[in-house]
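Collaborator request log, item 7. Partner lab (contact: R.S.) asked for a structural prediction of Aspartate aminotransferase family protein to inform their binding assays.
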Amino acid sequence: PIVELSKKTKKSYEFFEQSKEVMPGGVTANIKYFAPYPIVMEKANGAYVTDLDGNVYIDYLLSYGALMLGHGDTRINEAVIEQLDKNGTNLFGTPHSLEIKMGKKIKEHYPSIELLRYTNSGTEATQLALRLAAAYTGKNKIAKFEGHYHGGYDQVLLSVNPSLKDAGDAKNPKAVMESKGMDTFHQTNTIILPFNDFKACEKILRANKDEIGALVLEPAQGGFMLAEKDFVHQLRDLTEQLGIVFIFDEVKTGYRLALGGAQQLFNVKPDLTTLGKVVGGGYPIGIVGGKKEIMMESAPTIAADVFDTSQSKNSSAKDVLFHSGTYNGHPTILAAGLRTIEILEKELDRVILLTDELKMRLEKLFKSYNIPMKAVGTGSIFSVILTEKDKILNYRDLQKTDLTTRKEIDFYLLAEGIYTKPLNRYSLSTAHTMKEVEMTIFAYEKVLKRLYGG
Ligand code: PMP
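Returned to partner:
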């Protein structure tokens, strides 16, 4: 399938050769690369992207789930232009009204959020959440799950995608570093837990309860592999008992699984929540919110003497948590994000129904070819998993599914105009309709016919 795709994407190849002269490996984020070379997109509209050679694809990558309204939604553009017309970027470097408007909207959908802070990315959001937890509990270690991603910094870049031979015991996974150049300190400071195995988690958490200040999880791993409901509630109870701050990283699931994210589906209140992607309407953002008493760790103190110069450092005694950022709460981005959320209040249900339809039709199609496949996911995101198992519960289960065939299918689908990065998930948007679902099923049918005959 790669040869076939290469014939259609010659310009992408040529462009990529030039990219290598500018950026290491030709990319500015490692995730943008896939072998033999990434397809380079030039245009986008609604549910479609067009590459340099003029090939048109239905976009299911949607910039890793960020584009909940598809590409170029005029309603977002209008909100952005309205903001720009007022005062340019409106970047005053002071508090402003959209921070409050957006905050109120988020609080409406996420009752666990009493106060919040804006950041520039999901990465920064989880970083701040973990610092808040450490400040609040006085405990510096963190616990995270094998296979879960929370950003690219040392503290959490462990056992995200480890090779199974390095990963240790399934019930007590090793902390495997995911990058060269990392501080090895985090291999002991970050404790790795097995997803959806409460007994194993309980044992590890109890044994380290005096040192672990935060437990962070993706309530649906990779956005699609939903935690078991009991598991989440058991963790909620246990973390409360052990004085561990329970953090839901909803950067991917927020406004995608439901308006109120996975926590709405579970009917659970985490202590802290991180959001990103969708809430920026296609622009960079992150949000951290949660319990007032934890969030207040970051509130600047009012010094008795306003001319005390040490105040400029926020705290002379370092008794306030540091959080800052030139672009935090960027008005243009909040305008785009707020408009997106307002639209989703009316349209998310339809996207979810459409996703259910696509999942059902795909499963039916694979069944007619006698290929065991599950469309695993909830809300507006899912992944095509080739497995005979009834349930895929964690990273190791996923690694044992037929990823080789999945990848082969993905490359054939690229040549048929169905776009997601090979092995990636399918995210839908308000721009997707039944027409795209039909086209996708048609493309899949063509590919399965080629691979399996009939
Ligand atoms: N947490 C989760 C669950 C994510 O999926 C991501 C991004 N894929 C991040 C955090 C990091 O977000 P960003 O890429 O905006 O830094």
